[in-house]
Design goal:
Layout: E1 4-9, H1 13-24, E2 29-32, H2 41-44, H3 65-70, H4 80-93, E3 100-101, E4 106-112, E5 117-122, E6 127-135, E7 157-160, E8 174-178, H5 182-191, E9 197-202, E10 208-210, H6 219-225, H7 227-234, H8 258-268, H9 272-275, H10 284-301, H11 305-310, E11 323-325, E12 337-341, E13 347-350, E14 354-357, E15 360-363, E16 366-369, H12 378-381, E17 384-387, E18 390-391, H13 392-395, E19 414-416, H14 429-449, E20 455-457, H15 459-474, H16 504-516, E21 522-524
Parallel strand pairs: 1-2, 1-6, 2-3, 4-17, 6-19, 7-16, 8-9, 8-16, 9-12, 10-11
Antiparallel strand pairs: 4-5, 5-6, 13-14, 14-15, 17-18, 20-21
Bound molecules: 3-acetylpyridine adenine dinucleotide (N01).
């Protein structure tokens, strides 16, 4: 008999809820977590300015009515300390810590077909077995560490946004940030007022839409009065959250009307800005109308036209993850901030004194790497996952293969929460996490009620799902950008569009249907 019914890997938002729900249903569950506390993303990513880009009223659990009524968010978009407190509060409120082993990283998973269980090995030498394993390992949890010459030669302090130390002091220092995605933008905006000088090394200019963040105020009680209905409606939206303005098609908006429409959506801000247009990701001409308009907004915020020109993105808006900012572009109007376009002045190497880009050596006290993650598959293939002669790394060499983003054939009883080929990173992660966690718990209850203990997707259904997700993505502009959705940020990684683009509501209908049909496409034994 296995040591546990279920081992869950990771104590972020997915792992915490998976533990709670399965334990409530009488399963014996152990969570194994690499960090020393709960919180996942929000435990590790403590860099200055870190906050969520989906409104907290949506980026929060809905599974417990008392929890959602009692928790008070202070801002429209919560900052990392508040999100981490929330995760800790949930862990304490539901007494979750007693089933979590902290400070142990899962290194290997081995399926034994005879005993029908997984053997789980961790970095601290522990070996445990479980009938089922749920990888709640996060989509953006394995940092990408660019192979920059001389990185170890730097005589100053080298910091990573993805594992930020508590004692980083930046005041008055000469600081560089490499990377201008969401993490870079938030860091740059937060530290610009305190550092001595700031040099930003940009490879690709991004689109950032204003957050209009601020105290949440009375909006919270208005939401709470109808929270259950709101959450139900959010689960049927494409993105897993709601936007205040109605969705329209750009094709129906004339050239003269467009500026006023975009102004209105800009005032709402955040990811809703592009979510509002159903055809923005399918029609290149319509996308270009919005992209052009946003470029003009960027240009207007930056005093020096030469600097503004460098900040203008060239790819179609929203084909890479949109950034949500609070005064990012304005930072470049400060005298102590310099933008280096590394497509024109490539980083030759890191030196003992700083960064040599083009022919200039930038002398620095601190280099901050905000260079992103091996997204979606990174955390799964970082583990040595084996089933007989099959390894997950080999199976996914040409891109991930899953059924519903929940399981991969050949690896029975192994689930992924928000795995590749599910809406995951294209959605409000909390909505998608809760859906997957509930779906997995229902399947395990279903198996137990029938005296069954093995589940695996059928090859044909997996093939169909992979094809369907690729075909759907190809109907959009998304695969055209060199994004982390495509694996394009990791040298050597197969370029395949990884998330399911059909949206949360459509995905729910499919996965609900699969369950209602007795888990169609899965072999239950
Ligand atoms: O990572 P990124 P991130 N030399 O991959 C550049 C979520 N998130 O951590 O675009 C020089 O977006 C890279 O350039 P390029 C959110 O989903 C959310 O910022 O690949 N530069 C890019 O500019 C987000 O999308 C929040 O050409 C290099 C940057 O580094 C996701 O996490 C906050 C380089 C990496 O940007 C990832 O965001 C933070 C190299 N060798 C994160 N390699 C919020 O909720 C990469 N770059 C707001």
């Amino acid at each position: 008999m296995a040591d546990h019914d279920v081992i869950v890997i990771g104590a972020g938002f997915a792992g915490l809820y998976q533990l709670h729900l399965l334990r409530q249903r009488g399963f014996d569950v152990l969570v194994i977590e690499a960090g020393e506390d709960v919180g996942g993303t929000w435990y590790w990513n403590r860099y200055p300015g870190a906050r969520c880009d989906i409104e907290s009223i949506e980026y929060s659990y809905s599974f417990d009515e008392d929890l959602q009524q009692e928790w008070i968010w202070s801002e429209r978009y919560a900052a990392q300390p508040e999100l981490l407190s929330y995760a800790r509060h949930v862990a304490d409120r539901f007494d979750l810590r007693r089933n979590i082993a902290f400070g142990a990283r899962v290194e290997a998973l081995d399926w034994d077909e005879t005993s029908r269980h997984w053997t789980v090995r961790t970095s601290n030498g522990h070996v445990r077995t479980a009938t089922y394993v749920v990888a709640a390992t996060g989509c953006l949890s394995v940092p990408s560490r660019p192979d920059l010459a001389g990185l170890d030669d730097f005589g100053g302090e080298l910091l990573w946004t993805s594992s930020w130390p508590d004692d980083a002091g930046l005041a008055g220092k000469r600081v560089a940030v490499v990377g201008t995605g969401s993490s870079g933008l938030q860091t740059i905006t937060a530290i610009a007022p305190v550092v001595g000088s700031l040099t930003v090394f940009q490879r690709t200019a991004c689109y950032a839409v204003p957050a209009h963040n601020g105290p949440i105020g009375d909006a919270l009680s208005a939401v709470k009065a109808r929270y259950t209905d709101r959450r139900a409606a959010s689960r049927m939206t494409p993105s897993g959250y709601q936007c205040p303005l109605e969705t329209t098609n750009l094709a129906e908006i004339s050239a003269t009307e467009l500026p006023a429409v975009l102004d209105k959506h800009w005032e709402v801000g955040g990811l809703c800005f592009t979510d509002a247009f159903a055809d923005v990701l399918v029609d290149p001409d319509e996308n270009e109308r919005v992209s052009t308009w946003v470029r003009e907004r960027i240009r207007a915020k930056v005093d020096d036209p030469a600097v503004a020109a460098k900040l203008l993105p060239t790819f179609p808006i929203a084909t890479k993850r949109l950034c949500v900012d609070t005064g990012y572009y304005e930072v470049y109007n400060q005298d102590n901030v310099e933008l280096v376009d590394i497509t024109a002045e490539p980083i030759e190497r890191i030196t003992e004194r700083g960064i040599l880009a083009g022919t200039r050596e930038h002398e620095l006290d601190v280099i901050i790497m905000a260079t992103g993650f091996d997204a979606m598959t990174g955390a799964l293939t970082a583990m040595d996952v084996r089933s007989g002669d099959l390894t997950l790394r080999e199976k996914w060499e040409d891109g991930p293969r899953t059924y519903l983003g929940l399981m991969s054939g050949g690896f029975p009883n192994l689930f992924t929460v928000c795995g590749p080929q599910s809406p995951s990173v294209l959605s409000n992660m909390l909505t998608s996490i809760e859906y997957h966690v509930g779906w997995i718990a229902n399947l395990l209850s279903h198996l137990r009620a029938r005296g069954l203990a093995r589940v695996e997707p059928l090859p044909e259904n997996e093939d169909n799902w992979v094809r369907a997700t690729n075909d759907l993505a190809d109907l959009t502009l998304m695969p055209q950008a060199a994004s982390w959705y495509m694996g394009a940020n990791i040298p050597g990684k197969q370029r395949v569009f990884m998330p399911f683009v059909g949206g949360v509501g459509m995905y729910k209908q499919v996965a609900d249907g699969v369950a209602a049909a007795g888990y169609h496409g899965f072999e239950l034994t």
